Fold:
Amino acid sequence: MTDDEARSGSDDDYVDELPEDLDAAEFVGPYTFPNNNRRRIPAAIYLVLGALCVLVYASRHDSSALVNAGTLWAGVGLVAFGAYGMVAGWTLEVEESDALAAAARVVGFPVGHASAQMAWRGWLSRPTWRILCYSAENPPTRRGMVIVDGVSGEVREWFAEDNPEDWSGLDGSLTA
Structure:
């Protein structure tokens, strides 16, 4: 055993595991995606701190060796970043199930398996759902990709195509 191993313990002492809130094995019930408007909490903190920096600069920049133009620039930067956080903190109005229903309406085939992923679009970080869906046949003959706006529920983009994946080597349960 080397000195480093003796100090840090053996590899058997370390266990890699998920935090309790991310462990899906213990999950019961429907999952609610966290709302995007939580971004407004740190944005409000940035705005307050930035305003304080600007206020301190305005009141003390002539009489203090510690307050200088850097205090002003830090304040301006914090206010700008806080304002951006307030604008980018959209409230997520469309739930995953609503986005999946919108995708099923637009692709033009009965949807079997589908997957929804939250993403953000553009400079203002508008929340959108990216939906990947397959037709209900086994194996699926069609697939589609739909992007649904998370604020308005509007379908922003979509396409559907014949499924190009070759599943001929698999049996009906999708196992080899």
In short: Helices lie at 3-8, 40-60, 69-88, 96-107.
